[in-house]
């Protein structure tokens, strides 16, 4: 793993959206009055004609975005994950997904990375809620460079999308030349004894767990499932057919997130064993990020223990 300075994936969004906006003048940022936190201030400075601040009015922002999309624009509604999923859920369903408009919802503060901000700002159910809505694509990058690549891919691919970023700084995993495809899992390493499937900020934790397991003689296939909808079903099926044992790791409620999506594939196949590591169907609280992860068992040690007993 790289020893480079840690950096939040929201910074990857902020840096790349400026370059995307320059390359694609149809891209518009709709800021929900938290540009400093969501890293849109540089976009506003450099591309003021492609920027609108709708104020603290998430639902209005979604409606404006839908209108702009009907005129050929590619709007990015930018806010916190808790608000960009639940506060505007009806608008995402009725105005964006039902009409299959080219609107992107780009959200910082995903999972428990808001830490000391507390449960009100910790979106632990957002991807699960939105993945039940038809037509939407849902992604969470693992690091800064992957965030940049997926932001550009989202801007250049038609359809409603939800992109989830971290507030806290994350370890850098990928170099700037690694390519990613929406809807296709990225296999970090192959293995034969157990498969670990993670996404977002938990990928680095899964990587460390895989390293410990390797030292214990347990071979791990490690997969970054950056897109949970559409899920790379083939990658999951291959894990079940080749290995039969999967551990999912996510900074999200274990209900209806990555773990549930993987379990659905296993259930339909009628074979395989899946253990889910994630938020244990409970609200967050004000505490350091690492402590919140540990409280939910999202740790290297817990993943290793599970792998050894499967």
Rg, nearest Å:
19 Å
Q: On the 0-100 scale, what is the average pLDDT?
A: 96
Percent range for β-strand residues: 15-25%
- Helix count? 13
**Sequence of strands across the biggest β-sheet:** 2-1-3-4-6-5-10
In total, the number of strands is: 12
Summing up helix and strand content along with how strands pair, one would put the structural category as: alpha/beta
Major sheet attributes: 7 strands, mixed
* Weakly predicted, low-confidence segments: none
Order of helices and strands: HEHHEHEHHEHEHEEEHEEHEHEHH
Instruction: Tell me the helix content.
Output: 25-40%
Q: What is the overall shape? A: globular
Separation of the first and last Cα atoms = 26 Å
Write a concise keyword list for the protein shown above.
13 helices; alpha/beta; globular; 310 residues; seven-stranded mixed β-sheet
General description of the model:
It contains 13 helices and twelve strands. The protein is an alpha/beta fold and 310 residues long. It has a seven-stranded mixed sheet with strand order 2-1-3-4-6-5-10, sandwiched between helices. Helix 4 (58-70) packs parallel to helix 6. The chain is globular and about 55 Å long. The two termini are 26 Å apart. The model has no long low-confidence stretch (mean pLDDT 96).
């Amino acid at each position: 793993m790289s020893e480079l300075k840690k950096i939040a994936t929201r910074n990857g969004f902020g840096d790349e959206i400026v370059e995307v906006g320059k390359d694609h003048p149809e891209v518009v940022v709709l800021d929900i009055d938290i540009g400093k936190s969501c890293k849109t201030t540089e976009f506003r400075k450099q591309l003021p004609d492609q920027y609108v601040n709708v104020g603290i009015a998430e639902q209005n922002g979604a409606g404006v975005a839908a209108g702009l999309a009907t005129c050929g624009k590619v709007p990015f509604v930018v806010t916190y994950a808790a608000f960009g999923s639940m506060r505007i859920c009806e608008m995402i369903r009725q105005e964006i997904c039902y009409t299959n408009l080219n609107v992107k919802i780009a959200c910082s503060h995903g999972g428990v990375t808001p830490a000391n901000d507390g449960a009100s700002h910790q979106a632990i159910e957002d991807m699960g809620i939105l993945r039940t809505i038809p037509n939407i694509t849902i992604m969470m990058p693992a690091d800064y460079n992957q965030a940049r690549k997926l932001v550009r891919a989202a801007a250049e691919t038609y359809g409603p999308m939800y992109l989830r970023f971290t507030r806290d700084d994350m370890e850098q995993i990928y170099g700037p030349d690694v390519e990613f495809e929406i809807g296709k899992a990225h296999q970090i390493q192959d293995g034969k004894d157990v498969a670990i499937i993670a996404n977002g900020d938990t990928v680095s934790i899964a990587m460390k767990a895989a390293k410990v397991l390797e030292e214990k003689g347990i071979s791990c296939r490690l997969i970054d499932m950056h897109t949970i909808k559409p899920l790379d079903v083939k990658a999951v099926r291959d894990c079940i057919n080749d290995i039969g044992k999967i551990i999912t790791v996510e900074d999200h409620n274990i209900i209806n997130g990555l773990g549930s999506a993987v379990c659905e594939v296993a259930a339909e196949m009628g074979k395989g064993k899946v253990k889910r590591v994630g938020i244990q169907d409970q609200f967050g609280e004000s505490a350091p990020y690492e402590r919140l992860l540990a409280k939910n068992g999202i740790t290297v040690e817990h993943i290793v223990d599970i792998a050894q007993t499967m």
